[in-house]
Amino acid sequence: MLPPASGTGQYFEKAAKSIRLIRQGCTNRPFYHISVTQRKRLNSQPVIEQLGSYDPMPNINNEKLVALNLERIKFWLGKGAQVSTPVAEILGLAGFFPIHPRSYMTAWRNRKTERENLAKQAEEAKTKENTD
Amino acid sequence: MSTLHIIIPYSAVFKKLDPRLMQCVLAHRKPRWLPVAKSKIYRIPKRPVVPEDERRELMRLNNNYNTYMRAIKQFYRDEMVKEQTTSNSATSEMSLKLDAEEWARCEELNGKWNAQVSLEREERRKIQLAEMEEYALARMEAKDKQLREKIEKASEEIRIQKELSATFITPEKLDQAIEHALANPVDYNFAIDLQGGRYEGRDSPPVLPKNKDEILQ
To answer: Where in the sequence is the domain holding A122, given as residue range(s)?
Structure first.
């Protein structure tokens, strides 16, 4: 039998802990648990505790749903748990941490590509006008 | 000349090692000890180009972020230490008093609930007892009736047998009965004609039915 995805609660006191995303969805349908686990463990191995969930696929209202158990996250941070980058990004957007640099980076890169696309479209329209 | 059959499947080994890893993320990947595919030997991955200003901006952001994070982590660690120390000292008078008050309050409430429940239980038990009594009485009555009927039936049987006992053949009466039987032989044989007339006897002379004339006509 597989161990519960919500965590076994068993861990070594002095081992390094990590708060990370654990993929729980199926093929072509990603879904993540935000869990605390020992840093050396694989993502397929039993976790210590589930701290939240993250659904990266937008729902009908164009929302990506996140659930966080902030009390327990505080507890594990107090215990010195390391936070992985994707989780740090989520927590940054949630206002629990400062915004992660990677969030800024993706944002400005997205803005840049959009600007370029717009410029391209404008140019195409111009050339079309000139030819007509 | 296939060499595939020599390779031990990586996932199979892994599964045998640990049943918890049945759904292993690495199961579909190439094992580390396999060489680079022939078609990929001369492929040189393209290096990402990060502009100098972007790099500097990222560096600045990362430095700031790391500083913030260090402070935040330190804060939570201190918080936990503080909490632990206060919770340890919280076994002192104040918390004990609060606990005692809470306990008393809970006890009072529990007592009230218990009293209420006991009242309800008494009522319910009374009703249940009455029901049980009624049921038992009905059963006893039914049993009595059955017994009476049985006795009645038996006594009736006895009465009939007593009446009949006058005609029983006892050892004293045996000789007389035999004599009587020999003196009056009874022949139960009979014949029937087409009209349904009965002709009693076979060895003994036939006794014609009384209404023979009617039947014959």
So the answer is: 100-132
